[in-house]
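Write out a record, fold above all:
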Amino acid sequence: MNAQNAYSSKAAQDERRSFLDPRTKLALTATLALFVLGGLGGERMEPVKTVLSALPFLLLLVEREWKRFFRGCLMLGIGYGLLVLMPHLPRALGFFALMCGGILTRFVVTVVMGEYLVASTSVSEFISGMEKLRMPAAVTIPLSVMFRLFPTIGAEWKSIRRAMGMRGISMGGGRAGEMLEYQLVPMMTSSVRIGEELSASALTRGLGGPVKRTNICRIGFRAQDWILLGLCLAVFALWILGLFGWEVGV
């Protein structure tokens, strides 16, 4: 009883509450996908894209996701390093470095933001946020299943790797083919089973029911949410003004 009260108390929920509202995270993810990954606005939006690119890493620091932060910084550093080395490489290698560097510098930022969204948002927070956005169940249920699917598949992948290590199956020793077979086949089978189980779990919790659900988690906009939402609106406003001839200053 005490454990249940501690979990459902206001203090416990405030302690478990994420730094940002899930709706703010979705808005940031969409903004980064359009401007950083999609290149919306072209070169005149480069100063804005630089600011946007730093946001996922700052949010990971706030949430103390050190592993994801350093991994993202490493991949982004490799991307920019390839772009710096590109003029000094032979033509074929220079083209390859330009392609890999351009992909990394565009994709890594958005992927890091997606990792932050999934890692820092519980399924209850996400569902509550989607309900406040008046999203239909046809959108909410698949996305809520996705939120649990990726972490569960990641845990399953690590379990398969550990089981293979115990049986002496590794990349070395000419057993790369066996490693590919013994890892991918169980992973595909597990992915199908995990997806079915998560879908059934979502339905048994009443996500597809006609009655309005209640939610124990607390979400809501705070000062940091309004600031970042304002930043997203400002980015779109600058892009729209640029369409009418206004230039973005550095």
Observations:
- Residues 36 and 127 are 27 Å apart (CA to CA).
